[in-house]
Amino acid sequence: MTEYVTGLQLLQQTQQTQPVSTGSQELNQLIGCVQRSLFYLFYGDDTLIDTLFQHLVAHALRDNEKGRPTVAYMLAGNYRKERTNLSLEELAELLEDHGYQMWEALRRVQVFTASSADQQYNMMQDLLGFIRDGGNVSLVLVRGIYKLAKDDARQWDRHRVYEEVQRSINDLRQLCAERGIPLVASGRVVKPRFSATPVPESSMFLRHTANVIIYLRRKGRGSRYNQAFLIDHPARKPASVEYSYMVDGNMGRETKPFRMSYQELVDRLRRELQEPLRSETRRTAFDLLVRAWSDELGAMSYAESFKMLDLMLLISALENRSLLEDALRRLESQQARLQRLEEG
User: Fold this and answer.
1) Domain tally for the chain?
2) How many other C-beta atoms can be found within 10 angstroms of the C-beta atom of residue 221?
3) Cβ-count burial of 183 within 10 angstroms (0-12 exposed, 13-18 middle, 19+ buried)?
4) Which domain holds residue 125?
C-alpha cells in the first residue's frame, strides 16, 4: 500500500473493520467514531483531551476480530516547559467501571515517553517496532504530537529539530495507515492574530497531515456537557456539538466467578504486599484478615455495587471492630468481677 489511497479505498477500509468509540454518543455522531487507518488530531482544553484519551483506551481494549488487543500510548513533552502526564489512577478507575480486570487491562497499554525531538524520533522507531511485532494493536495515541518541535531545549539547528518531529509523525502515520490502525493525537492551541477560532500548533503541517481535526472547548463550570468542533474531515462538513460521556459497565466484563476473582486478588496481595512486609506480626495479621474475608465471602458476593478491594477493606474494618467490641466486653466483665472482689 502506498502513502496515498483513493476515496473508494479509504471508504472500503473503514467499512471492513470495527471503529473505536470515543465513549460519547454525540462525539461519535459528529466524527463517525474513530475509524481505522485515519489520523485524528484533537486540540483544545488539555483536561478534555485527557478524558477523551482515557475513554478511547477503554473502548480500544475491547476484544476484536483478532482477539485481545493492545494500545500504544506515547507521551511527548519537555518537563522543563510543560508536563505531559498519564492520569493513571483515573484511567484505572475508568477501566474498572467498564468491567475490566484492572491489572490485566493495564498490562495491555504500552506507554512510550519522549522529552526531546531526537528522543521522539528514536522512541517513535521503538513504537513502530512495537506495532510491527505487537500483532493486534487496536489504537495508537500520542499526547502532544508536535509539542517537542517547539519545546526542545536545543536553541541552535532548529531546522533539524523540526525535521526530527515531522519525520517521526510521517513515519507513524504511514505505518498506521498500512496496518489499518487509527492514530489519535493531541496538539496545543494557538490563537491566530486575525481569527477568533483557535488553531492547532503547527497548523500548516498538521492540517496537511491529519485526516480529521477536532477542536474541544470547555462549556462552562459545573456543566456536564462540553463542545466539540469538527474543523476538517474527508467526508463530513464542519459542524459542532455538545457532548458528554457514558460508561458501559458490561463492555469489558469477563464472566469469571466471584470466588475466582477473589482468589486471584488474594494471591496477588500475598505476592506484592504480604511477602515484602518486614514485620512478622503484620504478615501474621494478613493471614488473619484472609480468614475473615473468606468467612464473609458470601456476603461480599452480594454487594455487586462495590469493588472487590473496597469490600475486603470494609470486611477488615468490621473484623477489627468486632474484635474491639469483644475485647471491651471482656474488659468490662473483668472490671465488674474485680469490683465485686474488692467490695467483698
Assistant:
1) 2
2) 5
3) buried
4) 7-243
- Taking alpha carbons only, the member of 161, 184, 159 closest to residue 114 is 161
Count of beta carbons in the 10 Å neighbourhood of residue 281? 8
- Cα 284 to its chain centre, rounded Å, is 36
Q: In this structure, are strands 226-232 and 183-187 parallel, antiparallel, or unpaired? A: unpaired
Buried b (16+ CB within 10 A) or exposed e, 234-247: eeeeeeebebebee
Predicted model pTM: 0.71
- C-beta of residue 248 within 8 angstroms of C-beta of residue 25: no
**Do 59 and 123 fall within a single domain?**
yes
Q: What CATH number does the domain containing 60 carry?
A: 3.40.50.300
194, three cell numbers: 486575525
* 105 touches 149 (CB < 8 A): no
pLDDT per residue rounded down to tens, the chain (344 residues): 445 556 565 555 555 567 899 999 999 999 999 998 899 999 998 889 999 999 999 999 988 888 889 999 998 876 665 666 677 888 888 888 888 888 888 889 999 888 888 888 888 888 888 888 877 899 999 998 888 887 777 767 778 888 888 898 999 999 899 888 999 999 888 877 666 778 888 757 888 889 999 999 987 665 667 899 999 998 899 999 999 887 665 555 554 567 777 888 888 888 888 888 888 888 888 888 888 888 888 787 777 656 777 777 877 887 888 888 888 888 988 988 888 888 76
How would you list the strands of the sheet with 39-44, edge to edge? 109-114, 70-76, 137-143, 183-187, 39-44, 212-217, 226-232, 239-243
Q: What are phi and psi of 278, to 5 degrees?
A: -80, -30
